[in-house]
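Let's practice the habit of predicting before peeking. Look at the sequence and jot down your guess about where helices and strands might fall. Then scroll down.
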Amino acid sequence: MSDEAERERLRLTFDEVATAYQAARPDYPDALYEDLLAVTALPPGDRILEIGCATGKATLPLARRGFMITCIELGADLARAARANLAAYDVTVVAGAFESWRPPAGELFGGFGGFGLVFAATAWHWIDPAVRYQRAWAALRPGGHLAFWSASHVFPDGGDPIFDELQAVYDEIGESKPDDAVRHRPGELPSAATDIEASGLFDVVQVRQFDWEIRYTAEEYIALLN
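Done guessing? Here is the structure:
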């Protein structure tokens, strides 16, 4: 199976667990949103586009700050859950693929999209890399911002040994770590800056890393794995 076909297959699977997604997936730290707004200086009530909102985990903190948000969500069940979770806010959830979505003609700004920010929370890697930067750029008004982030494990000195202890289980079910797997320390995750700059579409690139710890019960961790 090609990388493209495998990416397409895997990104569709989240819709199968829409009911559990909201409870199981972790929230992002408040410092991330505060830094995002400090860097972008978005005016109150500005228009934002989110790619792959799922159930609205990353949407809610920005909706609570009064922004007008349009969300594009591939999964129909996830989109329905997001609409329910965000019903009290100025949020529109559109079911569909970002790669084929276009802003309504009435929302264009000088031929561009009218959004001050396009963002994706742990969803950017699912978007077709051949078009994702171009599609995001086209949705922005001049001077707009693109932001995307992910939640990756890091391994501090003296951290919880659970990942080592579980490795035998992963080996048993045929999900062993690749031989070239890297255990990143805090602050040492790979940066997407080179990839962003290579698009030729964004003038100023800033990268941040936020470390935070989440503790799970056994039942909560199993739910996360599911």
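How did you do? The radius of gyration is 18 Å.
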